[in-house]
Write a structure and sequence with these properties.
The strands form four sheets. The chain has a seven-stranded mixed beta sheet with strand order 6-5-4-7-10-15-16. The chain has a four-stranded mixed beta sheet with strand order 11-8-9-14, covered by helices on one side. Strands 1-2-3 form a three-stranded antiparallel beta sheet, with helices on one face. The protein is built from ten helices and 16 strands. β4 (136-140), α6 and β5 (168-174) form a beta-alpha-beta unit. The protein is 39% helix and 18% strand. It has two domains: 4-113, translation initiation factor eif-2b, domain 1 (Four Helix Bundle (Hemerythrin (Met), subunit A)), CATH 1.20.120; 122-321, 3-Layer(aba) Sandwich (Rossmann fold), CATH 3.40.50.10470. The protein has helices spanning 31-39, 46-63, 67-75, 82-92, 99-132, 155-165, 181-193, 205-210, 236-246, 277-280; strands at 4-7, 10-14, 25-27, 136-140, 168-174, 197-200, 216-219, 223-225, 230-233, 250-253, 259-260, 281-282, 285-286, 299-302, 309-311, 316-317. It is of the alpha/beta class. α2 (46-63) runs antiparallel to α3 (67-75) and α5 packs across α6 (155-165). It starts with a strand and ends in an 8-residue tail after the last strand.
Length: 325
């Protein structure tokens, strides 16, 4: 199934906040609904956000009104992931040509993401077999499957490709605090694909690597900087340090659209700080004492010195050999 599509004149998304218990589709009929869906993570994942941003602009163009304000609101709904702004800007560049042209661009972005996912899967699997051999054990973080793209995935596309080749022993899935995208989403996708997997706590990753239970770390990115620094879901940096200490590959799989050569390094990225309730409680129940102050960065920056390679839909960038995006 598609995470996001254009149906009956509106973006149609799977509400990822309800998974794994309920597969529920939402039609986003207003710009405010698009912005809210992005902010509350009903739609998430860098490539999916690019499509959502473009389709949001197409919706704004169809509805009329203050389209410039709508574009600004959609573009700023989440500041860290580069794909959202990229998708919005590509679609908005066609506003002068009329709503049909804007929609055509949004659908072209959707279709390109479908192709890119399969290319990333193939290239990623090829590289992993070169680096880590056969029947490998992969650790992944957050969700990088079809839910994060349109259908197939980024890092999880490489995992699926390995599984289809018979080159995968199992996947260790980190739970991904604070919203548990790994536990709720990645495990659901792997189960649906028939891929052997076990769920682990985020903090267990480096220890399991040190115990020789992981052959490679494979995950996605929300922004890749010009020097190769990787901005991804909080917890990524710890896994990168663990991989370095264990002497195993740390591979990032993301579409070419996530490479942001206008941003020199991770130090230049605005890291989103999210609501305190995501840390102080879960599932509508408070788990921390009332009034607890939180610090809740949604992403972290992994220095390029900890990255083995970056795989996109068009190339493999060997950071460990001095290559840069």
């Amino acid at each position: 199934m598609r995470t996001i599509d254009w149906v009956d004149g509106c973006p149609l998304i799977i509400d990822q906040t309800l998974l794994p218990d309920d597969v529920h589709f939402i039609s986003l009929s207003t710009v405010e609904e698009v912005v809210t869906a992005i902010r509350r993570l009903a739609v998430r994942g860098a490539p999916a956000l690019g499509v959502a941003g473009a389709m949001g602009v197409a919706l704004a163009a169809r509805l009329g009104g203050d389209v410039d304000d709508a574009v600004r609101r959609i573009r700023s709904a989440r500041p860290t992931a580069v794909n959202l702004a990229w998708g919005v800007d590509r679609a908005a560049a066609h506003l002068a040509e009329g709503p049909a042209a804007v929609l055509a661009e949004a659908l072209a972005i959707r279709d390109a993401e479908l192709i890119a996912s399969h290319e990333m899967g193939r290239r990623g699997a090829d590289l992993l077999q070169e680096l880590a051999g056969e029947r490998m054990r992969i650790l992944t973080h957050c969700n990088t499957g079809g839910l994060a793209t349109v259908e197939y995935g980024t890092a999880l596309a490489a995992v699926r490709s390995l599984h289809e080749r018979g080159g995968l022993a199992e996947v260790l899935v980190s739970e991904t605090r604070p919203l548990l995208q790994g536990a709720r989403l990645t495990t659901w996708e792997l189960r649906e694909s028939g891929v052997a997997h076990r769920l682990i706590a985020d903090s267990a990753g480096p220890y399991l690597m040190a115990q020789g239970l992981v052959d490679a770390v494979v995950l996605g990115a929300d922004r890749i900087c010009a020097n190769g620094d990787v901005v991804n879901k909080i917890g990524t940096y710890a896994h990168a340090l663990g991989a370095q200490a264990a002497g195993i590959p740390f591979v990032v799989v993301a579409p070419e659209s996530t490479v942001d050569c206008e941003t020199k390094s991770g130090a230049d990225v605005d890291i989103e700080d999210r609501d305190a309730n995501e840390l102080s409680g879960f599932g509508g129940r408070r788990t921390a004492p009332s009034g607890t102050v939180t610090l809740n960065p949604a992403f972290d920056v992994t220095p390029h010195t900890l990255v083995t390679a970056i795989v996109t839909d068009t190339r493999v960038i060997r950071i460990d050999r001095g290559d840069r995006p």
